């Protein structure tokens, strides 16, 4: 956190660059996000949204610059930081040859969750999969996998939750469950969500970010955003293509 | 910290074993491949007549089969992790990367040893029947199997992690694995040959080969341990 900062920061990103060979997927990103905020990230395919989330979740190292999540450096404090963050991706990140319960118990072990069986039962109930807990996830529908993936991400009670297009492929019921879970924990969590759905992203966010070609096109708190102007800016970036 | 890593290592090993017992993918493919190799050896060598002592070539045949069999399993072990982004989920958890390496290598070692345990009696039945064996030196065989397989599983896990994201992963793994296995193969064949031939001289040869393999294991496991974080983060 910066000296003199009144609000504790969930994200502090300074001149962040991530290159793949000569191509810069992220190019000089500067962002500060207060704790408890909900950041929606928009941008065309290849804009660097997923790369940014991968850097912030310690899956990729930055090429230059720095990124701190909850005051922890994503490179130096990576192992410790991982106990405070969770990721819901469009891939379920679950083992198809384990049952729903085995998957959650495995990840509970990895995170050192206390009373894992109790926590797992609680979450299976929350995502309405307790009746399928002994079934292999290989036999689950897309919506069920995504619900279980939400349970996996929440197992260790992360303070910052990253959501990479979490609504993609969800049926309306699964969407309602995800909405409900977000609403339930919103007060004491920070959210960073990638979305192609402008309405949903704007409805949920407290801050909005548009990325294009690895650069910040717009980053503003929700109250400063004029919806029509925002949509216009977004539409103009979609044509900008990949970084 | 050590207990955390131990708990995570146990969880990953248990998960791999449960999944393998459920699907039997690795054991079945490796086991069948290994047994078929024995049959092919048997048919090919049955034409060679009885002018040579099978004990002279037994060690080479065995390790050749083990090396190729292990490649089959190594690729599959990492492909499981790539399914539905599981490797990403593993990397997101607060686990030191070398712990992932040791867990994957440990799982591969267990499956490899299981296949070797299945192959050895078949090999003995097909090739060493009626041959005079020194059972006191044959009893040393498990030592070299464990030591040799440890090196194969360790180096193989590292290389499989490197190659799993490449388009021709089977080819890439073979191109990297076989040259790196050469020193291990020399030591393992020497030691196994010594154990099969037996006698005082055979036991001496066994320990020379064994020392070579143990040295290889230490160097390669340390190198893999050091490189794993870089490789999964690349």
List the helices and strands and how they pair.
The complex is a heterodimer of chains A (243) and B (234).
Chain A lengths: L8 E12 L2 E12 L3 E5 L6 H8 L7 E6 L2 E2 L4 H5 L2 E4 L11 H12 L4 H11 L15 H13 L5 E5 L7 H14 L4 E5 L3 H7 L2 E6 L2 E7 L5 H12 L5
Parallel strand pairs in A: 3-8, 3-9, 6-7, 7-8
Antiparallel strand pairs in A: 1-2, 1-4, 4-5, 9-10
Helix pairs in contact in A: 3-4, 4-5, 5-6
Chain B lengths: L1 H22 L1 H22 L7 H29 L3 H7 L4 H31 L7 H4 L2 H23 L5 H29 L1 H35 L1
Helix pairs in contact in B: 1-5, 2-3, 2-5, 3-4, 3-5, 3-7, 3-8, 5-7, 5-9, 7-8, 7-9, 8-9
Question: Could you characterize the architecture of this molecule?
Answer:
- The complex is a heterodimer of chains A (243) and B (234).
- By secondary structure, chain A is α/β, with parallel strands linked by helices.
- Chain A has one domain (9-238): Rossmann fold.
- In chain A, 34% of the residues lie in helices and 26% in strands.
- Chain A has a six-stranded mixed β-sheet, sandwiched between helices.
- In chain A, a hairpin with a 2-residue loop joins strand 9 and strand 10.
- In chain A, helix 4 crosses helix 5 (142-154).
- The longest helix of chain A is centred in the C-terminal third of the chain and has 14 residues, at 172-185.
- The radius of gyration of chain A is 18 Å and the shape is globular.
- The model of chain A has no long low-confidence stretch (mean pLDDT 89).
- Chain B has one domain (2-233).
- By secondary structure, chain B is mainly α.
- The model of chain B has no long low-confidence stretch (mean pLDDT 88).
- Chain B is globular, with a radius of gyration of 19 Å.
- Helix content of chain B is 86%, strand content 0%.
- The two termini of chain B are 25 Å apart.
- The interface between A and B is medium-sized, with 31 and 26 residues.
């Amino acid at each position: 956190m910066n000296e003199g900062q009144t609000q504790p920061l969930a994200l502090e990103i300074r001149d962040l660059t991530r290159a793949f060979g000569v191509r810069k997927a992220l190019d000089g990103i500067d962002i500060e996000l207060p704790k408890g905020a909900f950041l929606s990230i928009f941008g065309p395919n290849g804009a660097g949204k997923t790369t940014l989330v991968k850097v912030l979740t310690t899956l990729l190292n930055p090429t230059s610059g720095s990124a701190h999540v909850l005051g922890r450096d994503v490179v130096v404090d990576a192992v410790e930081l991982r106990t405070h963050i969770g990721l819901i991706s469009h891939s379920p990140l679950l083992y198809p040859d384990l049952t729903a319960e085995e998957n959650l118990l495995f990840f509970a072990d990895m995170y050192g969750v206390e009373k894992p069986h109790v926590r797992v039962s609680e979450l299976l109930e929350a995502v309405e999969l307790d009746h399928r807990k002994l079934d292999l996830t290989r036999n689950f529908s897309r919506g069920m996998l995504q619900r279980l993936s939400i349970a996996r991400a929440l197992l260790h009670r992360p303070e910052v939750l990253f959501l990479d297009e979490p609504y993609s492929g969800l049926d309306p019921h699964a969407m309602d469950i995800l909405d409900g879970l977000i609403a339930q924990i919103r007060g004491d969590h920070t959210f960073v969500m990638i979305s192609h759905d402008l309405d949903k992203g704007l409805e949920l966010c407290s801050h909005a970010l548009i990325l294009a070609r690895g650069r910040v096109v717009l980053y503003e708190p929700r109250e400063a955003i004029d919806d029509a102007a925002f949509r216009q800016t977004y539409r103009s970036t979609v044509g900008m293509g990949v970084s | 910290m050590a207990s955390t890593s131990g708990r995570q290592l146990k969880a990953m090993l248990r998960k791999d074993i449960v999944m393998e017992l459920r699907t039997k993918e690795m054991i079945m493919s490796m086991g069948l491949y290994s047994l078929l190799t024995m049959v092919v050896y048997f048919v090919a060598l049955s034409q060679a007549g009885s002018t040579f002592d099978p004990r002279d070539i037994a060690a080479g045949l065995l390790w050749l089969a083990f090396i190729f069999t292990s490649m089959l399993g190594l690729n599959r072990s990492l492909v499981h992790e790539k399914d539905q982004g599981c490797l990403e989920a593993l990397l997101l958890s607060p686990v030191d990367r070398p712990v992932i390496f040791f867990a994957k290598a440990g799982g591969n070692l267990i499956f490899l040893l299981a296949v070797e345990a299945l192959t050895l009696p078949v090999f003995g039945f097909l090739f060493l029947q009626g041959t005079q064996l020194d059972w006191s030196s044959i009893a040393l065989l498990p030592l070299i199997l464990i030591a040799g397989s440890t090196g194969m599983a360790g180096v193989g896990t590292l290389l499989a992690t490197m190659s799993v994201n490449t388009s021709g992963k089977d080819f890439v793994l073979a191109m990297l694995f076989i040259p790196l296995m050469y020193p291990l193969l020399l030591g393992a064949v020497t030691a196994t040959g010594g154990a099969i031939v037996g006698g005082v001289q055979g036991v001496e040869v066994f320990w020379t080969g064994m020392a070579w393999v143990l040295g290889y294991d230490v160097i390669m496991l340390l190198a893999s341990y050091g490189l794993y974080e870089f490789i999964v983060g690349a």
